[in-house]
Structures are given as structure tokens and as C-alpha cells.
């Protein structure tokens, strides 16, 4: 909310007009948009949460850094396998013209290893505001 307001948008949260939250009937959404007096509607939806796995192989020094013979120091190294899992969240955002109900802009963003919505929301909002501004859908920055 604060990011949109800082961008010159008189934004209001949907919960003021849809206190029930969650998925609502189309007619109920129409009522809420009319009651809000909004010009546009910003909707964001988590599309996927992908668990990804990376496997790395590297070499680590062993207890003896120098071995005998032609291999010298290489005899003291051994392979180490590292496995790392992490989540990537994909979010689809759409902006609609409230009067015509037509799609004005849409985009998909990904965030790597999110910890909480509260921590991710400011960066996410900055990304969307910047994208809308670049396309002339928001006033130029201050």
C-alpha cells in the first residue's frame, strides 16, 4: 500500500470492501470495486512454489596436503558432494481497468527462498510499481 501511495496512487486495500477475504463471487467483486471508486484493480496470485535441488561436486583438502610420488599435493584432495534445496515462488500480477474490466497489464515474478510475506512484500511492490511506471501506467517518479 505504502509503495503505491509513494508512487502517487490513491490505493486502498481490498479488505476494506471485501472483509470476508478469499475467493469471492464475481458479482461480489464487482460490488466491492464500485464501492471503492477504484480506477484499477491490482490482483496478485501465487502460481507455484517450486522446490529446487542443486548438487555440487568440489574437491576438499584431506588430512595430508602433500602425497608421495608424481601426484604431489593432489594426492591429498578428495571429492565432496553438496546438496542444496531451496524454494522459488512464482507470483502472477494483473492490473485491470475497473470501468471496462479489461486487462491493462500482467506480469509474472519469481522470488528466491522467501521467508515471509511481510519481508517480501516491499521488494515485490517496488518491482511491480517500477514495471507499471516504465510502461506509463503510473506517474513518473519523484
Describe the structure.
It is a single chain. The chain has 142 residues and is an alpha+beta fold. The chain has a domain at 2-50 and 93-134. Helices cover 24% and strands 37% of the residues. The protein has three helices and three strands; from the N terminus they run ααβββα. The protein has helices at 2-6, 26-36, 117-134; strands spanning 40-61, 77-97, 103-112. It has a three-stranded antiparallel beta sheet with strand order 1-2-3. A hairpin with a 5-residue loop joins strand 2 and strand 3. The longest helix has 18 residues, at 117-134.
Unreliable runs:
none
Mean pLDDT: 87
Summing up helix and strand content along with how strands pair, one would put the structural category as alpha+beta
**Using DSSP, what is the number of strands?**
3
Amino acid at each position: 500500500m505504502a509503495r503505491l501511495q509513494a508512487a502517487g496512487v490513491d490505493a486502498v486495500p481490498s479488505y476494506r470492501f471485501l472483509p470476508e477475504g478469499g475467493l469471492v463471487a464475481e458479482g461480489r467483486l464487482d460490488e466491492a470495486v464500485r464501492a471503492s471508486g477504484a480506477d484499477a484493480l491490482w490482483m496478485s496470485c501465487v502460481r507455484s512454489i517450486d522446490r529446487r535441488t542443486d548438487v555440487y561436486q568440489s574437491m576438499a583438502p584431506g588430512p595430508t596436503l602433500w602425497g608421495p610420488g608424481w601426484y604431489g599435493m593432489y594426492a591429498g584432495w578428495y571429492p565432496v558432494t553438496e546438496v542444496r534445496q531451496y524454494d522459488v515462488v512464482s507470483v502472477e500480477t494483473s492490473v485491470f481497468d475497473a470501468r471496462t474490466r479489461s486487462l491493462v497489464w500482467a506480469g509474472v515474478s519469481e522470488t528466491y527462498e522467501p521467508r515471509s510475506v511481510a519481508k517480501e512484500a516491499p521488494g515485490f511492490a517496488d518491482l511491480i510499481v517500477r514495471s507499471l511506471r516504465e510502461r506509463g501506467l503510473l506517474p513518473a517518479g519523484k
